[in-house]
Design a protein that fits this description.
Helices cover 81% and strands 0% of the residues. The protein is mainly α and 86 residues long. The protein has one domain.
């Protein structure tokens, strides 16, 4: 199997669609697949493709970390509210 720009583009588009529809668990799977693809073919893809895919992955994982932090904050706030008595 060789590097295919169309396949990489398809994976990026699918990741974008899932993020827009807030289907983050599925997006994680697609991003992981894209990362594996990137690692497998990074040394043979054109430099511009490499930079674009690298940026997409960095952005996704950064946003994912932020979503995890917000989720933990929301959980903590929920626990605090459950334990609040007037």
């Amino acid at each position: 199997m060789t590097y295919s720009k169309d396949e990489a583009q398809s994976k990026i588009q699918r990741l974008g669609e899932l993020m827009l529809s807030k289907r983050y668990d599925e997006a994680w799977t697609v991003a992981s697949n894209l990362l594996a693809y990137f690692r497998a073919y990074g040394d043979v893809m054109p430099g511009s493709d490499y930079l674009v895919i690298d940026e997409v992955l960095r952005s996704f994982f950064s946003v994912n970390n932020q979503l995890d932090e917000v989720s933990m904050l929301a959980y903590g706030m929920g626990q605090k509210a459950l334990n609040t008595q007037l």
